[in-house]
What we know:
Elements: E1 9-10, E2 16-20, E3 23-28, E4 31-36, E5 41-46, E6 49-54, H1 59-80, E7 83-90, E8 95-99, E9 102-106, E10 113-115, E11 121-126, E12 131-136, H2 139-150, E13 162-165
Antiparallel strand pairs: 1-6, 2-3, 3-4, 5-6, 7-12, 7-13, 8-9, 9-10, 11-12
Amino acid sequence: MSRVGRLPITVPSGVQVDVQGLHVRIKGPKGTLERTFAPGVNFQMENGALVVTREAEDATHRALHGTARALVNNMVTGVSAGFTRVLEWDGVGYRAEMNGKNLVLYVGYSHPVVVEPEDGISFDVDAKTRQIKIAGADKEQVGQVAANVRSIRPPEPYHGKGLHYLGEKIRRKAGKSGKGKGKK
């Protein structure tokens, strides 16, 4: 039995789960998420918890079992608490600001870069800590938007300037030192 797949998903109060075959719809205070899963997994509500089971014991069904349970758990967490990714910027003259709902980045280009949020995504900028918070109910969407924003100016290895995730270790290169080169 899958270690992840066999765990029941506790459904917090205020969250409604609607299961119709392979289609799962979850509604909560942060929004509504729905997803259709591949055949081979079943969903049942038991004692206020959602239980995911598989139909067979072959490798494909075992893989789908844990994946389906993790996806549904992320959906429940997303509509109840939400997900957040935090980006930081480093660099002289680099800054970010909000223009309505849009994120405006000044990161070394000749023009500001405007990022419009997708549906279900919100941006928040804290200039003091040099952080951009990307929040939403769908974990996959939040992560993709964060990756898209980071790709506007990824950190470069010599000075570390650019946009990076909070706590991300940037691999630095030594650069030219000019020492030890030349005649012996």
